[in-house]
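Chapter review: from sequence to fold.
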Amino acid sequence: MKKAILIISAMLCCGVLCAKKNSTPIATGEYNDWCDYLDYINITKVVNIDNYKTIVILPIGQDKVVWPDKDDNQYPALEKALASAPSVFQKQIEKELKGKNIEVKVASSDVSPKSDEILIKLNIESLDMGNRALRVWVGFGAGNQNIEISGYAEDTSGKCFSFKQKHYSIKMTSYEKVLNSEFKNFGEEIANIFLNMQK
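The token string follows.
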């Protein structure tokens, strides 16, 4: 009987630990697979987005982007997508935070945060435009596009959180449309960081 009680207690204990492990941690610390969607986040300050009036998106770091040759049809698609990326992020974050009474702006240069402002700085860590021919003829993940970004949010007190996220795409639309679609997805996920911190 005692043995049975010990086994049941161990199972219950394990269940509590697993539940705690899989719950969304809204606290300072480093987490992988945060909220079951974000690859990595390091929270140094839990943010209440209601305390801010403005989100400012800083210029996106592109130093790690490997550009195709200028005569490659991927080149103009990448150029256009990267040029429009800040406004895509702006519109998507604004859409997801609708009702929060917060303005989302794009800055033309890196700036320091003002009172009631939170800045978002994004960097492209890797970007592979993929190969549509391989996707069609080979399949099994061959030729897929992928893009990884890192970023952080900062207010007057310093960095609030930093994160990394990678997306893979098997879409068969134009290179530019695929990138714009992924930038929208990233924008939604960034907005969800703020929303999840309020839960």
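Two observations follow directly from the output. The first helix runs from residue 2 to 22. DSSP finds four helices and seven strands in the chain.
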